[in-house]
Amino acid sequence: MEIKKKYVEILKQQIEKAYDIQHEKIVEISNMFGQCMSNFGVVQLFGIDHDEEFVNELNYRAGGIAPFHALKIKDLTLRGGVKVADVESGRIYLPENVAKTADALMGLYELDDRDMYVLVSTKGNDPLVLELAKRVKANNQKLVAVVNKASYDACGGTLLDYADIWLDMCSPEPDVALDLAGVKVGQTSSTVANVIAQMLTAETYRYFIEKEGKAPVLFSANIKGADVHNNALTDPYGRRVR
Predict the structure, then answer these.
(1) 202-242: pLDDT as tens digits
(2) What is the CA 46 to chain-centroid distance, rounded?
């Protein structure tokens, strides 16, 4: 079998596994999203580095559901007074700095007690993610965690201690699918996670159709009238989804 085909087959197996063992959880979490949004809450999303790819699948994109919002590290440098060098060096993620970083990050946005959170951390041990998780639970808000359980267990993750419910990226540890002459290549966790994110989108759409007969789906900017349509969905939230 050619190497790229082998990779596709491995990836398909992992996606099928993620569906088979978690399809009920995906429905449950999507219902949580729908209930939060129906109460004028926003689903707040956060992940660092590659884990931010899951966030980007859900946050403000065509064909997606409107009331998602991403907390982004880059916003700290754009309008939070944090130096780029402190981000690139990882200084803001050091355990002794994460409380200050979390204060600065959360202070950038209009967060609301009706909101719930999705925190993505492959290994479940990122100090900043854990700091945010502590704050979410201290405020009695719902928390969904997304981890790669094999990596989580290998690295001593603790994020699931705070989660109401969690999802598994279902990839191996280390996260490589292929062996080419003794060299390990071909990560899978981000791709599987992105598919899970789109399953959540589909099930959240299903929730709204069943409960309300329509869903707050964003249109592509290439469609005539998309701006008017999308603004009608997001304007009631002000800066909460921007």
Answers:
(1) 999 999 999 999 999 999 999 999 999 999 999 999 999 97
(2) 6
